[in-house]
Structures are given as C-alpha cells and as structure tokens.
Write a structure and sequence with these properties.
With about 110 residues, the protein is mainly beta. It has 1 helix and 7 strands.
Amino acid sequence: NRMYLDEINFTSPVGINEFTKHIGINVFPNPANENVNITFSLSEPKKVMLCLLDAIGNILIKKEITEYRSGINNVEIPINQNIGSGIYFIKMECNGISVVKKIVIDR
C-alpha cells in the first residue's frame, strides 16, 4: 500500500517566514527620533493595520485599518514627544498574520 505524489506546487506563501519575506517590510530610520517610515510590498490590494508597541505589548500609536494598493507602499508614523527613548516594536497585521519589527527611539 504505497502512495506517491508528483508535482506539488505552492504558488503562495506556505509559512510565516515565507509570508514575511513576501511582504518585504522595512522600517527606517532606525534609530528614529520624530518619524518612522514603514515601507512594504503587497502582491494585491489588502487591508493593513500598523501599530507602535512598547516592550510589553501596549499599543502606543495605532494607524487605523487601511486598504493599501498592490506594489510598494510607504507609511509615515509621527512619534509623539511623550514617547521616550527606548526599544519599541512596529506591528503590521494583514489577513490575521502579524509581522513585528524592532525600532529604537532615540530622543
């Protein structure tokens, strides 16, 4: 009782790591002072939510869910003066999958 499978093809990302590579998110400048730029690439238009989190996961800044076009997108997040120097995280959520990047705020 043997079964053989031939020609298995995956055309979309099949794992978390492949998904994050597929999006191609970039956060700059790092360290940041006043603004953080987030650049990401989408293969098709999708709704995306972006947040700035502190070290324990509290949401400090939240960009409302917005539909972004396919291709390269750039979002600028102004950093409030009440956010001190330290290590923070940018969280991007798309279709229930989150990608998190570390950012340093240097005042």
